[in-house]
Write a structure and sequence with these properties.
This protein is of the alpha/beta class. Helix 12 (231-243) packs parallel to helix 13 and helix 13 packs antiparallel against helix 14.
């Protein structure tokens, strides 16, 4: 048998052929969004990537995760099949008929991927209870790998957030009650030497002079850690402080923790690998002192769900400052935990740190008291609900109850589209069915390629033992689609919900309006689902690994959907015509090109050194008599559409932020009750229209759209290349972009 001992690389000849054959389906915001968000810097060319180069990097990074290539034991026939698959994937993604997640667009094929396989996954879940670190890349030296430590879930959270991932975490009663009583009061001392460029700022923030303190104190009677200038150093410093409060991890009850932060790089210095700039140690000092004060205040008591959430939020707040990017968190609490449900009503703490997570409550199908939740949602848009019972015992609802469907599910990612076990990540890829259809793809082929792409991601090099165990067992994938409303309306001439009929709830006797779905649309979604499952089964047999516990989802999308200009996930377009505003740093080299093309640019009214650019946008099918937008579609139809996708397409979950008008508030609780046996996760927000200055999205009429469109001349990409020969600056972040429609998940 011939053996291939090399990695797969796509030839420039092939790429040139594709570029001549296929034109990328850029949306109105697509190229600008891509160039500022996913185009990596190429040092040897002194510029950032072009789209063909990004896709080449991403596809090669993924195809070479095939374990047969990694262990260099693949036959020539199989090697050639993988080469052909890489070519098909390249065409699919280059034409923007589909894309991997934003994380993959940014990381796949880089050296950072090789060092941190975790970085390919958007989001994670961890249960907040004492856990062992195990054989992980982080293990505080004072711990044995099998010791259950209160710090472990917070270390996992801190680490993944700093890698750019979002984290869902569970503080339900069954988890929180496993945390022991706080039985050591800790005196925290943070030292810094005068050689640090951050010395003055750190002293003001509460640190003390290292040399002066060491001259008057003995380290032998303390828990001491000199923090290296690394992500792991920040994590272990925080863990050392947390674990000092509990005798099982501080058996001698040492009452003083000393952390030396002298080596941490100063504010503004570059962060290698993932990118961005350093915040300096001040946010870290504030976080360490805040968490230590919280734990000291609970001496002799057990932590509550609110305490545990606060600690997670303090970490999230620090990551936002530390990495100049979003920190996405979802805290999952008990459905009858009033303190948790109302914790954001404390405005002082909300503004200080509680803004850092979206909060949801865990329910089961027997739960029926939705009115208090609905009242809270109308007040502040929270909490969302996550039905763990459905997630554990159902894939698609149409497939029926299965006791062993996904029994280890404990929570979800921050956007709610993937049900996850402890330590597990979401693993996403989305197809744009309308674009794929327009470009001549057989949809089953497109979804099969998506399934195989995500399957390979499960063979990445994962840092945490808890994650490796969960991934190897579940091999969970999340093949999604965006532009769902566009595709349905374009191909079937109407929306999936064709009407409602009277029905009676067999359990409660309540009357309700049951949605009627177009049977042809139902058939199409069933076929697309089966293509994903079949592709997974075939590839799993080839690789001799477990089939995926679940396969499909609908993620909220956001930045990625903007690339192709399609509606986001299952959501209806915000409006038929709108102004989309994107914020840029005022030094961004894209701004002159945008100005030359006639786009309206003005200073941002909320943030210094930031410019706000207006893009007029027309939604697909805006002219159709059956077009509906988030501003006028009923709350009932949105619930029904989510239920349709949960029933016939998604065996994971369906992320949907249902928008509602004030007059629809009294329908929230009844609709939650109606779909309690169908919908796995639900969140709602009031439809805001354009209630504040420079709103990200502002509905306009057609005449205004045409007027603004007429003011735009030329192509931004062409103008930019003429003015800049691609990028002339690095590490300039795009403001207010995310991988999710709701703006919760990380930029990349």
């Amino acid at each position: 048998m011939d053996i291939i001992k090399t990695k797969i690389e796509l030839s420039q000849e092939f790429i040139d052929e594709v570029k001549a054959e296929i034109k990328p389906h850029w949306g109105e915001l697509g190229w600008v969004t891509y160039k500022r968000t996913y185009a990596r810097w190429i040092p040897e060319l002194d510029r950032t990537e072009n789209w063909d180069e990004t896709v080449k990097r991403v596809i090669e990074g993924n195809i070479n995760l095939d374990p047969r290539l990694q262990d260099k034991s693949i036959s020539l026939e199989d090697y050639n099949e993988l080469v052909e698959e890489a070519k098909s994937l390249y065409k699919l993604v280059y034409g923007l008929a589909a894309t991997p997640s934003g994380r993959n667009l940014w990381i796949s094929g880089t050296a950072y991927q090789d060092r941190n396989g975790d970085a390919l996954n958007n989001c994670w879940f961890i249960a907040v209870r004492p856990q062992k670190y195990g054989d992980s890349h982080i293990l505080p030296e004072y711990l044995d790998k099998d010791t259950k430590a209160v710090s472990m879930p917070y270390s996992f959270m801190f680490d993944q957030l700093m890698k750019g991932g979002g984290v869902g975490f569970s503080v339900v009663p069954d988890n929180v009650k496993q945390i022991p009583e706080v039985d050591v009061k800790t005196d925290l001392k943070i030292l810094i030497g005068k050689e640090s460029a951050s010395y003055d700022d750190s002293i003001k923030a509460g640190a003390v002079d290292r040399d002066e303190w060491l001259a008057n104190n003995d380290l032998d009677s303390t828990l001491y850690y000199k923090m290296p200038d690394s992500r792991e150093g920040w994590v272990i410093g925080n863990a050392t402080m947390i674990d000092s409060h509990f005798t099982n991890t501080n058996p001698e009850s040492v009452g003083q923790v000393v952390l030396d932060i002298t080596d941490i790089r100063a504010k503004g210095e570059k962060i290698k690998g993932f990118g961005g700039t350093a915040s300096g140690p001040v946010p870290l000092i504030e976080m360490l002192e805040d968490i230590n004060d919280l734990l000291n205040s609970k001496l002799g008591q057990r932590l509550t769900s609110v305490d545990c959430t606060d600690m997670g939020n303090m970490i999230g707040k620090t990551v936002v400052a530390g990495n100049v990017r979003r920190s996405a968190e979802l805290a999952l609490g008990g459905a009858e935990d009033d303190d948790f449900i109302t914790m954001k009503q404390d405005k002082e703490k909300l503004y200080h740190h509680r803004w850092a997570s979206n909060n949801s409550v865990a329910v089961d199908s027997m739960f029926n008291d939705y009115q208090p939740i609905a009242d809270s949602i109308q007040h502040n848009g929270e909490p969302g609900i996550v039905n763990l019972d459905l997630s554990q015992h159902y894939g698609r609802i149409i497939d029926g109850y299965n006791e062993n469907a996904d029994p280890e599910v404990e929570g979800t990612n921050p956007c709610g589209e993937i049900s996850l076990s402890n330590g597990e990540p979401c693993n996403l890829f989305e197809v744009f069915p309308q674009v794929a259809t327009d470009e001549g793809w057989n949809l089953e082929d497109a979804f099969s390629l998506a399934a195989r792409y995500t399957k390979r991601v499960t063979f990445s090099n994962y840092d945490w033992e808890v994650s490796r165990n969960a991934i190897a067992k579940n091999r969970r994938i999340g093949v999604s689609m965006s532009g769902i409303q566009d595709w349905i309306l374009s191909n079937f001439g109407h929306r999936v919900v064709t009407g409602f009929e009277d029905a009676v709830d067999s359990e409660t006797g309540e009357k309700y309006r049951k949605p009627i779905y177009d049977p042809e649309i139902v058939k199409s979604f069933k076929e697309m689902y089966q293509s994903v499952v079949d592709a997974d089964k075939d590839y799993s047999d080839t690789l001799n690994c477990n089939t995926s516990v679940k396969h499909t989802t609908v993620k909220p999308s956001g930045t990625v959907a903007k690339l192709a200009g399609v509606s986001e996930g299952m959501h209806f377009h915000y409006a038929g015509y709108l102004i989309q505003r994107i914020r840029f740093q005022d030094s961004d080299p894209l701004l002159p090109a945008l100005k030359a093309c006639g786009y309206k640019i003005e200073p941002d009214v909320y943030t210094k050194n930031t410019m706000c650019v207006e893009f007029p946008v027309q939604a697909a099918n805006a002219e159709s008599k059956n077009f509906a937008s988030a501003g006028n579609v009923s709350i009932a139809e949105q619930f029904a559409t989510q239920a349709f996708l949960q029933t016939y397409w998604s065996d994971n979950a369906v992320s949907c932020t249902v928008t509602f008008q004030p007059k629809e508030g009294d329908q929230i609780a009844p609709l939650m009750r109606q779909y309690r046996h169908i919908t796995k996760s639900t969140s709602l927000l009031p439809y805001s229209g354009a209630d504040f200055k420079q709103a990200p999205k502002e509905p306009i009429d057609k005449a205004t759209y045409l007027k603004k469109l007429s003011e735009i001349k030329g192509d931004v990409a062409v103008e930019f290349a003429k003015e800049n020969n691609n990028h002339d600056k690095k590490d300039i972040e795009l403001v207010d972009q995310s991988d999710c429609a709701g703006g919760a998940c990380p930029i990349r």
